[in-house]
Amino acid sequence: MAHHYPFSIHWSGNTLSEDYSRNAELSAPQKPDVLGSSAPEYKGDASRWNPEDLLGSALGLCHMLTFLALAHKSRIEIKHYEDRATSVLDAFEKGFAVTEIHLKPTITVAPGTDPAKVRELFEKAHKYCFVANSIKSKVMMQPTLQEG
Questions:
Q1: According to CATH, what is the number of the domain 51-147?
Q2: Who contacts 111 (Cβ-Cβ below 8 Å, separation ≥6)?
Q3: Residues 72-98: pLDDT tens digits?
Q4: Residues 78, 114 contacting (CB under 8 angstroms)
């Protein structure tokens, strides 16, 4: 069964000017708006989310939620998850692409948790993450585990 997620993007300005606005508002029903722009390297506003940020964040969030669901089903107690991820935009023969996304979460588990089982679930989450299954970018995963 397919699920549909409507969203809107609003932009206004004048593209005849070299310094036309790259700023836009992204919206979806019952959600706060997201302020978007291009990356600063492309004359965008660094204080707003750009497509590179959003793609990497979508993958990181999907992977985390999938991992947490697998941990829940396996009765593994995860206490905290913080990812310091990076999207890599690179040039190739047809233009530009996000070629790599690096996920580097620090995962805090309950004392006595089997680290091999946690790593297994983390790897398995990649297989079931629908965003990972939707993109061509290479996903690099480097989790750090700690007890707490």
A1: 3.30.300.20
A2: 147, 148
A3: 999 999 999 999 999 999 998 889 999
A4: no
